[in-house]
Amino acid sequence: MAGNNRYSPRKLGTILDAAHIAIGICVVVMSIFAFFNPGRYMFLFPIIFFLAAVLNFMTGWFYLRMYPRVRKKKAAGMMYMIIAVVISILCVISAIAIYRSI
Q1: What's the rounded Cα separation, in Å, for the pair 70 and 87?
Q2: Could you read off the pLDDT of 15-71 as tens digits, one per residue?
Q3: What is the DSSP letter of 13?
């Protein structure tokens, strides 16, 4: 049976939108806590970077999966993946710096 996909593009788009909303709300709430009292909530910075990296990985994967033959969308997906790797590196660096000082 050709075309028997578990997830249609519409369903994957809805899942991606829901993830953007949920992770976005979490990042905003954690950023507010970390901004107003950075000494107490310093441990949230690596978590914020991690969630941002996860969001970029998901978006990049979506673009690469849904638009394999559209050059602009494929390039956008690759840029999302590169940005996610950079943010992941920042997550690791901030985690090492913060948790080593505790």
Answers
A1: 26
A2: 899 999 999 999 999 999 999 998 899 999 999 999 999 999 999 999 998 888 899
A3: H
Structure tokens at 40: 């107490």
Please name the residues in contact with 48: beta carbons below 8 A apart, sequence gap of 6 or more. Answer: 27, 30, 31, 34
CB atoms inside a 10 Å sphere around CB 49:
21
CA angle 66, 19, 91 (to 5 degrees): 100
Residue type, 58: M
Token pair, residue 98, equals: 């913060």
- For the record, the structure tokens of 95 come out as 């985690």
Tokens representing residue 26 in the block: 């979490």
Rounded Cα distance, 25 and 16, in Å = 14
State the amino acid at position 9 in one-letter form: P
Task: Name the pTM for this structure.
Answer: 0.84
